[in-house]
Design a protein that fits this description.
- The complex is a heterodimer of chains A (268) and B (341).
- With 268 residues, chain A is of the alpha/beta class.
- Chain A has 2 domains: 122 residues, no CATH class; 127 residues, no CATH class.
- In chain A, strand 1 and strand 2 form a beta hairpin.
- In chain A, helix 3 packs across helix 4 and helix 8 crosses helix 10.
- Chain B has 2 domains: 188 residues, no CATH class; 132 residues, no CATH class.
- In chain B, the strands form 2 sheets. Chain B has an 8-stranded mixed sheet with strand order 3-2-6-7-8-9-1-10.
- In chain B, a hairpin with a 2-residue loop joins strand 2 and strand 3.
- The chains are: A alpha/beta (268), B alpha+beta (341).
């Protein structure tokens, strides 16, 4: 833990970055909160433990944070994947950010550019944990009617606060389709149809782009497991298009690329 | 008026049955998938009265998350417009804590101000509140800093306070409360019982009146608002779980042949909340939107409507994905304001 703080402090002192985006202790023992540290003394307050689950990459695209200058970001594995996906989608320049990677065993590594991030991510385990896989299998195994009931009940709690969208680093559209009302694509009411359309549209827009950080479900005040939708679509994207998100800084992502030799007739 | 009765926990089923039989819709805290929320009940089986706080507030009882107002249909050249009358069934909110009970004063002030609100007012008029003193609180509760308290009776028609594991003292505070007792006379026993059990200890953290007075001075201090809100993601979680947030949007939707006008909740944290058609946004930064949230609740509403826009329930802080803690922020603002003298 000292290393994380020392790293942050050194980067600030050397003037390499203007701000370190990390975590501080939160309101109680179960919560951490994002912190924006700009002076070396403050770096001592940075923490990294099980509470630090929010994907901090989301702040890299916020104008207020960008205005602070070049940033270092404390990154768990999913945040590193986000940086690569951001680069693949032309959201950040190769040298725009310093990643302070914290591995599962607590090892802290400075990754000065995206090439280093890519190499680091390639060495990390990928894929679902047995628990995550079991969770998906359980729902997949339900007969259609029961699966529909499960999702209807789950999505029925949605009141459209859009915390999922706000917490998601890949939900960065300056004008989200759900806020467009000429024409109105998504029903605004938080009724069964409106909730289904919003959550399914969001999941589809993230297919092949979601880096599986889980921040959407963590953010949801209603405890809706929208991360499961994304997780299944990520699997489908790999099966259908061979593309996993957040592995390469140069990769085309499935739903926004075009190949003249596409196997489907209709798109050629 | 204030008289007291004894209500046994064992008689709650009888009470709910009698109210239901009399045509009242009864809403009460119920545990579902590990979360306690206000739900319609017809018996006492699922009651979860030992809760600290529900995730979402009781405001949806009078101000639902969406409400249909008009239906339009076009057939050939014929256009029909049909008003959807507001649904306002007689309702008893049973077991709401004093913060939720107090929130109706703010909702009433907002929705009866000026021309009144055809959708909310009838629901307020059809509502009876049976409050429940708080045996427990948590670190997010700050009712005592905003004029409330764990045994505060404001907004309650009846207030229940635990005497022991099995018994409540019921203080009958209004005519409406008396009418409710008359609907289920068998559930209430005469008497006041011994001294109620101690309620939750919620220590005051700041003085709301002083904060209200000082906030206008802090309006121009951009660094204070930026420091507090840099981590804010701009979602609507705080506003949607809040018992006193009343902002709404009205939209026409579906198709041109079959459409409806709906009112939905809205939130001042959203970037497009104040976005003008011209593209100009008078609150273009998240820090300006956070400032608006605080100013509206603690400066503008007290000045214009003589009510605070906060009851200290702490839901916004419990639900915030980035741990924005309203009580903590207000405490800091109050200290900053005091220090600026």
């Amino acid at each position: 833990m000292d290393t994380l703080q020392t790293f942050a402090s050194a980067k600030l002192a050397a003037g390499e970055v203007k701000i370190v985006i990390g975590y501080q202790a939160g309101s109680d023992a179960t919560r951490a909160r994002p912190a924006f540290v700009s002076d070396t003394a403050e770096a001592a307050s940075l923490i990294y433990d099980d509470r630090c689950r929010q994907n901090l990459a989301v702040y890299l695209l916020k104008p207020e944070v960008r205005a602070a200058g070049r940033a270092a970001v404390v990154c768990g594995p999913a945040t590193l994947r986000t940086l690569l996906q951001y680069a693949a989608e032309n959201r950040i320049a190769a040298d725009a950010v310093v990643a302070i990677a914290v591995d599962a065993d607590g090892t802290v590594t400075e990754l000065a550019d995206l090439e280093a991030v890519e190499t680091h991510v390639a060495r990390q385990p990928r894929g679902l944990t047995p628990e995550q896989q079991a969770e998906i299998d359980r729902i997949d195994a339900l007969p259609l009617g029961e699966r529909w009931q499960w999702w209807s009940r789950e999505l029925g709690r949605c009141f459209k606060c859009y915390a999922c969208r706000a917490a998601c680093p890949l939900c960065y559209c300056s004008r989200c389709i759900t806020d467009v009302n000429q024409p109105q694509w998504i029903p605004v009411a938080a009724d069964p149809l409106g909730n289904l359309e919003w959550n399914v549209v969001r999941a589809m827009h993230l297919a092949g782009r979601c880096v599986d950080c889980g921040s959407c479900a963590e953010a949801c005040p209603q405890g809706i497991r929208i991360d499961l939708l994304n997780r299944v679509l990520a699997r489908e994207a790999v099966v259908d298009f061979g593309v996993a998100a957040g592995v390469s800084r140069r990769k085309d992502y499935a739903l926004a690329s075009f190949k003249p030799d596409d196997k489907e007739e209709f798109i050629r | 008026m204030s008289e007291t009765r004894i209500l046994n926990r064992a008689a709650l089923g009888e009470l709910i049955a009698a109210l239901t039989a009399a045509g009242q819709r009864v809403l009460a805290p119920v545990e579902d998938d590990g979360r306690v929320e206000f739900r319609e009940v017809t018996d006492a089986d699922r009651l979860a009265l030992d809760y600290v706080q529900t995730v979402t507030s009781a405001k949806a009882v009078v101000f639902p998350r969406f409400e249909r107002m008009l239906r339009f249909a076009m057939r050939g050249k014929d256009v029909t417009v049909e008003e959807v009358p507001p649904a306002s069934p007689p309702t008893v909110l049973l077991g709401a804590h004093p913060c939720d009970a107090a929130s109706f004063a703010t909702l009433r002030a907002v929705f009866t101000w000026d021309s009144g609100d055809a959708y909310c007012e009838p629901k307020l008029a059809a509502l009876t509140v049976v409050g429940l003193s708080c045996a427990r609180g948590d670190d997010f509760c700050f009712c005592t800093s905003v004029g409330g308290g764990p045994a505060d009776a404001r907004g309650c028609d009846i207030l229940l306070s635990a005497l022991d594991e099995k018994t409540y003292r019921a203080e009958i505070l209004t005519e409406r409360g008396r009418a409710l007792v008359d609907l289920a006379p068998g559930a209430f026993q005469p008497g006041a019982g011994a001294k109620p059990r101690p309620v939750a200890a919620i220590l005051p953290r700041f003085a709301a009146a002083e904060l209200t007075e000082k906030l206008p001075e802090l309006f121009g201090d951009a660094s204070v608002w930026r420091q507090q809100s840099l981590r804010c993601l701009g979602c609507g979680s705080c506003a949607y779980v809040c018992p006193t947030c009343t902002c709404f949007d009205i939209q026409d939707e579906r198709s041109r042949y079959d459409a409806m006008r709906v009112r939905t909740w809205d939130a001042c944290g959203f970037g497009h909340f104040t976005l003008h058609a011209s593209g100009h946004n008078p609150r273009g930064k998240q820090s300006e939107r956070w400032r608006q949230r605080v100013m509206h609740k603690f400066a503008y509403q007290p000045a214009r409507l003589q009510v605070l826009g906060c009851v200290g329930c702490g839901r916004c802080s419990r639900s915030c994905p980035v741990d924005m803690n309203l009580g903590e922020h207000l405490e800091r603002l109050a200290a900053t304001a005091a220090g600026s003298e």
